[in-house]
Design a protein that fits this description.
With 287 residues, this protein is of the alpha/beta class. It is built from seven helices and eleven strands. It is globular, with a radius of gyration of 19 Å.
Length: 287
């Protein structure tokens, strides 16, 4: 049995937390909201001594000092995709987790989306990946979008990039309207990723070209009308909330079965290193 703790942003959401209680492998020992933590101080002793899994959904509690303290207590960590750590701090956290034989999983709705089966075997042949991800007015989410899409690309291609080309519009002084990346891989594959923050249409499309043909995926399906509605979440976030629950459930199963190969730290490490290279090529600050 896993003894879990949840660090939740804003006010406690009873229905979402009740849904988490249905995860068969986890006994949730405590739920800490932003308000409680601010009142009581950001102390690790607020967590039960037998806690061995912490789900951190509040970006304010994703600093290296806070998370490294949890790792040293032997906790497995499920983290929100938006974090306060630098690339160097992420690398240090991964090293700590490897030393302590603990698991870190970072939220990535794309890998759990019904359009993309992460369990299906991916052919080893060279591929051309094309991704168009449009989020009007969400330039501040560039880092999270980079992480999610790059991790998906690396999973599909299963190779290391040999060359990276970066184009941003505008290209200096402030957040961009459009970012385009072109990646060439050692196994002959290539990937093009375009992130757009202009216009009015929200869109996220993936095409995978291989010797077996072309597969097209869209990540824009609407929420099933029978899905549970969680108060406090906007309609556009409802489907994402279902995917979040699915990921936390899968994370618990990986801990119990020790099947770390599915979400090993190497994937996150490779993605962060790639992001670091890309960030150096961009001419504006991503802070």
């Amino acid at each position: 049995m896993i003894n879990g703790a949840l660090i939740y942003p804003g006010e406690e959401n009873d229905l979402f937390i009740a849904k988490l209680q249905t995860i068969r492998y986890v006994k949730w020992r405590t739920v800490l909201t932003s308000g409680k933590l601010q009142e009581m101080g950001d102390r690790h002793d607020l967590l039960p001594s037998n806690c061995n899994m912490v789900t951190v959904l509040d970006p304010d509690y994703t600093s290296f000092s806070y998370l490294s303290g949890l790792i040293r207590k032997g906790c497995h960590l499920f983290l929100t995709e938006k974090q306060k750590m630098t690339s160097e701090e992420r690398a240090q956290l991964i090293e700590l987790a490897e030393e302590g034989n603990t698991l870190i999983q970072i939220r990535n709705d794309l890998l759990f989306h019904p359009s993309l089966s992460i369990n299906s075997k991916i052919e080893s042949a060279s591929k051309l990946i094309e991704i168009h991800h449009s989020e009007p007015g969400k330039a501040a989410a560039l880092q999270e979008m980079l992480y999610s899409n790059l991790l998906m690309i690396l999973r599909i291609v299963d190779s290391e990039p040999a060359r990276i080309s970066v184009c941003s519009i505008p290209n200096s002084g402030y957040q961009p309207d459009v970012v385009n990346l072109h990646l060439n891989f050692h196994n002959g594959s290539a990937a093009s990723l375009t992130l757009s923050f202009t216009g009015e249409k929200k869109e996220h499309l993936l095409s995978v070209h291989s010797p077996k043909g072309v597969k097209h995926y869209t990540f824009n399906e609407k929420l099933n009308i029978n899905a549970e509605v969680i108060p406090g979440f906007e309609k556009s976030q409802l489907y994402s909330t279902e995917l979040l629950f699915k990921q936390i459930t899968n994370f618990a199963e990986c801990i119990v079965r020790k099947s770390y190969h599915k979400f090993g730290l190497s994937d996150e490490s490779r993605t962060f290193l790639l992001m670091e290279k890309i960030n150096r090529k961009l001419e504006f600050s991503l802070a």
